[in-house]
Amino acid sequence: MSLDNQQQERRRPDRAALVIAALLMVVSLIIAWSTASHGAGANYARVGPTTFPYVIAVAFFGLSIWTFFEAWRGDFPEREKQEISPILWIVGGLAAQMLLLKTAGFSIATGLLFAATARAFGRGALWKTIPIGIVLAFVVWIIFAKGLQLSLPAGPLEHLLF
């Protein structure tokens, strides 16, 4: 009898996966609708600018159907408990980077993102990872802004040294 109970528990529909299946379906419909509403594009070729978005929409549609059936049968493995703290550190680092990019510049903003991500993964203290992140981001800024002549936001640090 306990074996039957375990099979019943395992065969229960996975609600989270059903939500993911519904979201995949919505994304596929949005991509198809958006592609169809943008007009014909280039009609002179069979494969034009609208072909690839339709392929992506069909792929998402197929994934949504597959996810739905797997969720309904309860075939997904049991998920581990989610830790919210690392997610908040990474989202906070991304928010800080977006807010500080124009005022503090690429190096400082990206250095803070690096430190927040390192903190999320449990690597090093902030007093150590912030300077390391700023130095690494500054090297990246030099390579892209000066070496490749690409436009990255410059802040006080970049203006001080260049």
Automatic annotation (TrEMBL):
InterPro entries in alphabetical order: DUF1468
Coiled-coil region list: none
DUF1468 domain residues: 19-153
Transmembrane segments: 16-34, 54-72, 84-113, 125-144
Keywords assigned by UniProt, alphabetized: Membrane, Transmembrane, Transmembrane helix
Name of the protein: Tricarboxylic transport membrane protein
Organism taxonomic ancestry: Bacteria, Pseudomonadati, Pseudomonadota, Alphaproteobacteria, Hyphomicrobiales
